[in-house]
Amino acid sequence: MNRDDVIYLALLAFSMCFGLYYRRINDHIKKKYIGASLGFLIVLIVSRVHIIHVLITTIVNGLLILYTDRRKCQVYVFSFSFLYLFFFRTTAYFGIPYPPSHTNLVQMMLILKIIGLAFEVNSSYQLSLNKGDAQNNTDDERLENETFQIKDIGFLDICCYLFCYCGVLTGECHPVYKL
C-alpha cells in the first residue's frame, strides 16, 4: 500500500469519526461552514498543489450556475465540466504533471455534484415558472412545487455544498444538507 492510499484511508476513518461530533451541531450555519472547511482541508491534503483543478471547476461552474440563464445553466455546467474533465485527464500531454489518483476521484465526485446542483437549480426555476398555474394544480402538486424549490443561493452556498466533508471522498452529501 502506498503513502497516498494510507492517507486516503486515514481521512476516511477520520471523517467517519468526525461524523459523531458533526451530528451534534445544531446551528445550521455553523454546521455548513465547519463541514465545508473540513472538506476543503481534506481535498487539500489529498490533492496538494493539484487542488487548483478542483478550484477551477468549482469557481467556473459556480459562476455558470449563478450568472447564466437558469433555463440552460445545466447544459453549460455539463459541457464545461466534461470538457475540463477531458483536459484534467490529459494534462500530461500539455506538460502539466498528472494529478494523484485521489484527486481524480475528488474531481469526478465534484463534477457529479455540481451537475446535479445545476439540474436542481434548473428544475427549481421551471417550478417557479409554473407557479402561475398553481390555481389549476391539486394540493399535492402545489405542495411539491413549494417543497422542492431552491431559494436564492450564493457562491458561498455552492462552495459549502460542494466541499461538505461528507462527500468529497465518497460522493455523498449530508442527507439533510440545505442550500
TrEMBL record:
CC per GO annotation: membrane; mitochondria-associated endoplasmic reticulum membrane contact site
Domain of life: Eukaryota
Membrane-traversing stretches: 6-22, 34-56, 76-96
Gene Ontology MF terms: lysophospholipid acyltransferase activity
Keywords from the named record: Membrane, Transmembrane, Transmembrane helix
GO BP: lipid modification; phosphatidylinositol biosynthetic process
Coiled coil: none
Pathway note: Lipid metabolism
Family assignment from sequence similarity: Belongs to the membrane-bound acyltransferase family.
Protein name in UniProt: Lysophospholipid acyltransferase 7
Biological source species: Acanthoscelides obtectus (Bean weevil)
